[in-house]
## 1
Amino acid sequence: MLDKGAVGAESSWAGGGILSPLCPWDYPEQVTRLTELGRKRYADSMGELYESSGIDPEFETGGMLVLPPFDLHVAMKWCETHQVECVEQHGGLFLPEVAHVRNPRLVQALRKRVEMLGGRILEGCEALGFEVRSGKISRLMASGGALQADQYIVTAGAWSKQVLGEYALNLEIKPIRGQMLLFKFDAPPIKHILLQDGMYLIPRRDGHLLVGSTLEDVGFDKQVTEEAKLSLWQHAQILLPALRDMRPVRHWSGLRPGSPGNVPVMCRHPHLENLYINSGHFRYGVTMAPASADIMLNLLEGWQQPFDISEYRLI
Ligand SMILES: Cc1cc2nc3c(=O)[nH]c(=O)nc-3n(C[C@H](O)[C@H](O)[C@H](O)COP(=O)(O)OP(=O)(O)OC[C@H]3O[C@@H](n4cnc5c(N)ncnc54)[C@H](O)[C@@H]3O)c2cc1C
């Protein structure tokens, strides 16, 4: 596995770690299938990951309270259809099964596990292009020299189009910046995630509170802005007035791999037989990760998929 920077330090580090779409009823079935499968796989695997790696990803099932405005009828119908528990509460809808993880810890734990299983991670190693022979990649040109493998998977998030170059075909993935604020309380000021109008508050065990996030189409620009800081902070104060007397302890941004309809591309490349793509998970890449990993493994091994994956192909 190679990364041009430090592994797990881009979008997967920057996110909030909510293991659900914000308003799951707003998304097509191609998204729901992946987020639902991902959600279940987290519940089954986080204990084992903690035990084997010694790093606690802080998996918590505290639930999420979705506050108006949203269509309560549509939301409840969606929950019923997908057998997702929900309870009407404070004029909103509480989803008790929604969990979250602490991203920097999750990526550290995963990294350790990959290395324990014999995986090699090359950091500061940039993929620069492919050498193609007879419809196959024969070598990957990278900043540390040429590399060879039987199969290659592009998982470069917002940068996937750049990595694929002329082989990107009609891939529609672009960076969408998200800014986040972090506050620190002595103890968690709320028990569960609060969500209103795309803005959310996520409590961490040690009293840290995340406030996110913006959705900005500004190219590969990771700068944070005063405007976003004020807007997130002011909106958050409406949900949690105690934030008026506090100052953020950290402000950062990440570049999501934005895709139409939030539907990722997970497939074998139509022209190069040993090239695969797993990218474009946009706002829910952490939630979808276990499902995507299963699907990619099934593709590489020729195993049966959990459902029809033709809707995630590149044309
Ligand atoms: C503010 C914010 C909040 C979010 N909140 C959530 C949430 O609550 N729940 C959720 O499920 N998702 C959330 N997300 C989305 C989630 O973080 C992403 O969908 C996911 O992390 C994408 O993972 P990725 O591996 O595709 O991309 P990344 O994590 O960005 O990884 C791509 C990697 O490719 C490397 N790379 C790029 N070009 C090259 C090259 N040429 N050679 C070698 N390496 C290269 C990069 O260095 C990087 O490490 C959030 C994102 C943001 C920004």
## 2
Amino acid sequence: MADASVSTMAVFGVPSFCLITGASKGIGRGIALQLAEKVGDNSLFVLTARSEAGLQETRGLVAARRGSGIEVRTVTGDMGNMDALSTTVSDLFDGVDPTKFKHAILVNNAGSLGDTSQAVRDLTDPSVLQDYFGLNVTSAICLTAQFIQRFPEVAGRRRTVVNITTLCGIQPFPYNSVYCTSKAARNMLFQVMALEEPDVRVLNYAPGPIDTDMQADLRANLGDPEMRKMYNDMKAQGKLLSVEATCKVLVKILEEDTYKSGSHVDYYDVCK
Ligand SMILES: NC(=O)c1ccc[n+]([C@@H]2O[C@H](COP(=O)([O-])OP(=O)(O)OC[C@H]3O[C@@H](n4cnc5c(N)ncnc54)[C@H](OP(=O)(O)O)[C@@H]3O)[C@@H](O)[C@H]2O)c1
């Protein structure tokens, strides 16, 4: 159940700070576009990823969708570079005045599959694992901690943290060991945070199988032949979901605001 004071505050239509990772393409871009239709004037979007070209494309699409009322900033950075992570995270909040916003939204969306041709028995290189978990776990934790500090609890301001998760975070799939493990770790992290920060609305959203570059990676490289065939069949039969469809559902969940903070909500929980 939503915290009583938070539940009286508007989710959308108010000046909002929206920080979205992995916003250069795919689901991150889709989330930016859907939120752009919902936030109030005088909102600020901070979009981050490694590809400057991708971020600029997203910025252009947001501008085309919304027209005015939103300032869009792009910050290019590698969230997997642990030596630069503190600086990268700090840059995301550079010059941001938290008092200007009635809703602060963080979407932890950036992520990678890792090498899905590898089984657990192949995972002998610690530096590869460090890099993988740096991007997929550590960066989300450090960014979320900074977000909570930069936007402390104040009366009249709502805070929302979304973790883009997956069925793989709650169910094992062969050759997806690091992906499953990182998503399971993140799910737990955000469940813990929901207990520690009752004022923050925390959502673990599993978007379903979406037609993005990540799915193309699975179709080409997944080590399990049966599952690789399943993903290829889904693509061929048009069974993958669109970015737009799943992002609309995410925004609907946020707008209805009835989810238990910290819970895992799947696209298919809503669209059965
Ligand atoms: N597609 C699916 O079926 C599916 C299903 C369930 C969950 N998800 C989750 O949805 C999220 C987005 O996936 P997607 O399908 O949209 O994948 P995608 O098209 O591959 O996009 C991944 C995003 O993450 C960014 N990213 C990757 N490595 C990064 C790094 N080192 N530093 C900063 N940003 C980085 C990418 O930007 P740059 O390359 O520009 O850095 C890109 O914007 C992921 O967390 C994924 O696990 C996807």
